[in-house]
Amino acid sequence: MSTISTYHYTKTFKLENGKKLRKLDIAYQTYGKLNAKKDNVIWACHALTANSDVLDWWKGLFGNNALFNPDEHFIICANVLGSHYGSTSPLSTNPVTGQPYYLSFPEFSIRDLVAAHRLLATHLGISNIKVLIGGSLGGQQALEWSVLDPGAIENLILIATNAFHSPWGIAFNESQRLAITADRSFYAQKPDGGIKGLKVARSIALLSYRTYDAYAATQLESVNDKTGGFRASSYQNYQGEKLCKRFNAYSYWYLSKAMDSHNVGRGRNSVTEALAQVKANTLVIGIENDVLFPQSEQEYLASNIQGAEFYSLKSAYGHDGFLIETDTLTNVIGNFLKESTNKKIIKLHKTA
């Protein structure tokens, strides 16, 4: 088992936009042990509202007897900057004022999330990562890291993510932020500010995470005489309330902004030139009916990252399939890593 640890970075943390945090806390969890060669590191980057307990939210792919297990690997997952699960966030105390930041927290980008990860890696004495993996916003982080520090990543697994966030994705996020800011309590400077708006935001988000067919399969009425009290309505309410019990509107607002900022081409001439910098053995997995991150975005990644392999995942769950279809992911990723290892052995023999 693992407990949450916190790395306290006491120097000033400068964000991409030039703003600064006087100190930075990074909550993280590790599982297993780092071997003598330090070549068994599996680093998982989490998505929007997840946390550092990857064995909990990615069950089936991570865990005892899973593909990524603590017996063989040293698994790391760090809570991102801005998320309230232990890392510095809008609910943290501003050392200047002694009060929580709330809306005075500086905006940050995907590159800032990665910069924090890299500080933690240095703190842990890790310079090489055997497998860097992430889906959705987690995949955005993994890709950005592989562009920033191409020599550090041996194998890269990108699932249901993109090279830059699309106008479609930004529009979904802005709609959710509009819902949050329509709740006047968002400006009330209190931990549960914007909570009603957050419930609506989650309802909007679900429509991008799932599909028409998924709702038809799980929320279809069994009788024809209803005029109200529909299962789909109850489901939206339930999921909204469920998130409100474990998350906050401020972190959600800032993290959605960070997702919008994602563009590997920023300051690098072009997106294609940035993707050409990736040196890791790369597997890109797309979900064929993903509404939020259409498969064409993953095909673009695979086409522009040298030597990348692409796999099309069939799922009834749309975007959420990256968290649910763990049996298929285990087979696909497992085979990819075996092939990667074999290629490495052949290369070593040729150079010996």
TrEMBL record:
Enzyme Commission number, as recorded: 2.3.1.31
GO CC annotations, alphabetized: cytoplasm
Residues reported in the UniProt entry to bind substrate: R202, D320
Pfam families for this protein: Abhydrolase_1 (PF00561)
Domain (AB hydrolase-1) ranges: 45-323
Transmembrane feature ranges: none
Main subcellular location of this protein, as a coarse class: cytoplasm
MF (Gene Ontology): homoserine O-acetyltransferase activity
UniProt keyword terms in alphabetical order: Acyltransferase, Amino-acid biosynthesis, Cytoplasm, Methionine biosynthesis, Transferase
Alphabetized InterPro entries for the sequence: AB_hydrolase_1, AB_hydrolase_fold, HAT_MetX-like
Subcellular location, record wording: Cytoplasm
Reaction equations catalysed: L-homoserine + acetyl-CoA = O-acetyl-L-homoserine + CoA
Active site as annotated: S136 (nucleophile), D290, H319
UniProt cross-references to Gene3D superfamilies, sorted A to Z: alpha/beta hydrolase
NCBIfam families: homoserO_Ac_trn
Annotated function: Transfers an acetyl group from acetyl-CoA to L-homoserine, forming acetyl-L-homoserine.
HAMAP family: MetX_acyltransf (MF_00296)
Assembly mode: Homodimer.
Sequence similarity: Belongs to the AB hydrolase superfamily. MetX family.
Name the UniProt record assigns to this protein: Homoserine O-acetyltransferase
Organism: Pedobacter africanus
Source species taxonomy: Bacteria, Pseudomonadati, Bacteroidota, Sphingobacteriia, Sphingobacteriales
